[in-house]
Design brief:
It is built from 15 helices and four strands. The protein is mainly alpha-helical and 426 residues long. The longest helix has 34 residues. The structure holds zinc ion (ZN).
């Protein structure tokens, strides 16, 4: 539940803030925790040579993607049943009444309800998390993370999601109490501030909890200089190019543009630096700079906030009606929390094609920018193919899968676009 709420608010932003260039499937806050992983076969690819999609790896990638999709459905099913069970069994009212025996403070009631309600969900969902995030990637020979490392990531992630979720819910229920008519509008505005602050703080406060970020060192001085020149040409203010120890969890590669203003930086997985040619890395960075030039972080926050506002308005309508139907004291009764989660969760699900579509559109523009600024479409196509191979990513998904879930255009399309650029422009 905390997870559902945090996901709904942060998903859009975290995707933009934390994981970019390659992220084939719409995911959650756990994006930071479990980057898609892959095996890398030294015999097959030479990092000084360009590469293309490996058909054998694609066979495996298809199976992997199908299992992941099924697990996602199971996860959604568990979440829905959990929320409905609290509402239909009367457990929601019983928990609130039980808590009222201890305290009358509305703040403590919301906190107590959230912790018990969210805590039970985390426990119920734990076996599935363990299977999908630890067992499965290992089975597909992708993850290199130790069980201890995974548990540590889970605990840090839970602490962050718990604190953020609790702060958000306390704010929402406080607004419900003081402004029953327009709480959804205030909550939407508050969420914008929350997101901007979080975008600024994530690179310096949250991300270092999971990875060590260091500036590109002496050994990559030439690469660092090349990338800095590229950034300067794009006229963007970036506070340095950083690398992070992605390889402690996975063999997959990724890169991203994080933060805003003074915390804005470009981050490259050490796996990317290790396995990609300097030409390829340059095109990857150019893609990231494309987001910068196109103001994608700001636009993404604006777009996400607008969607959130619609969701909150719907929640206001449903809570007004639902509180009476379920016998709660009113919409601000903490017992309505499962209903709030259900509305926001369902709304997030329904709007997923819209947010994924928005993301794919901005991503394809960033791809275009990368091609125009580097004039190196063969290196770009090669970088994308290397990602498909290395990250065990399905390059050519079914159209409906891409439509519903993909935050980036399918890799096969991105590669075709790069190859088309070669022919069309020059
Ligand atoms: Zn991107």
């Amino acid at each position: 539940m905390i997870e559902v709420l945090v996901n709904f608010c942060l998903e859009m932003k975290l995707l933009i803030i934390i994981s970019d260039f390659y992220h084939h499937q719409h995911s959650t806050i756990s994006v930071i925790l479990n980057q898609q992983s892959a095996i890398y076969n030294q015999k097959c690819y030479n990092r000084r040579m360009s590469t293309s999609i490996d058909p054998e790896r694609q066979e495996k990638a298809k199976v992997y993607a199908r299992i992941q999709r099924r697990l996602m459905l199971v996860d959604l099913g568990i979440g829905a049943v959990y929320l409905l069970a609290w509402l239909l069994s009367g457990g929601s009212l019983a928990l609130r009444s039980g808590l009222q025996a201890w305290t009358t403070s509305p703040w403590l009631l919301v906190a107590g309800f959230t912790i018990i309600f969210g805590g039970i969900y985390v426990i119920i969902d734990l076996p599935l998390s363990y299977y999908s995030e630890f067992t499965l990637p290992h089975r597909f020979d992708q993850s290199v993370e130790t069980l201890g490392g995974w548990i540590k990531d889970q605990l840090i992630g839970l602490a962050i999601a718990g604190v953020l979720g609790l702060v958000m819910l306390e704010a929402v229920y406080w607004l419900l109490r003081i402004s029953p008519g327009f709480w959804w509008l205030w909550a939407g505005i508050l969420l914008v501030f929350f997101t901007v602050i979080l975008s600024n703080l994530a690179p310096v406060l949250i991300m270092p909890l999971f990875n060590k970020f260091v500036p590109l060192g002496e050994e990559h001085a030439e690469l660092a200089e090349r990338l800095t020149r590229l950034a300067a040409r794009a006229g963007t203010k970036v506070q340095g190019v950083f690398t992070f120890d992605m390889s402690k969890r996975t063999k997959a590669a990724n890169a991203g543009l994080t933060g805003m203003g003074n915390t804005r930086r470009i981050v490259l997985g050490d796996t990317l630096i290790r396995e990609f040619t300097p030409d390829e890395i340059e095109t990857v960075l150019a893609h990231e700079l494309g987001h910068q030039v196109h103001q994608d972080i700001v636009l993404g926050i604006a777009f996400g906030s607008l969607i959130n506002l619609v969701g909150l308005f719907l929640a206001a309508v449903v809570l007004r009606w639902g509180a009476a139907a379920m016998g709660a004291a009113g919409p601000s009764d903490p017992a309505t929390l499962p209903l709030f989660g259900l509305v926001m969760g369902a709304f997030g699900l329904v709007t997923m094609p819209l947010t994924a579509g928005w993301s794919r559109w901005r991503e394809s523009l960033a791809d275009q920018y990368a091609l125009e600024s580097t004039h190196n479409s063969s290196a770009f196509a090669s970088a994308l193919a290397r990602l498909a191979n290395q990250n065990l990513s399905e390059a050519d998904p079914e159209p409906w899968v891409e439509f519903l879930l993909y935050s980036h255009p399918a890799l096969s399309k991105r590669i075709r676009m790069a190859e088309g650029y070669e022919g069309g422009h020059q």
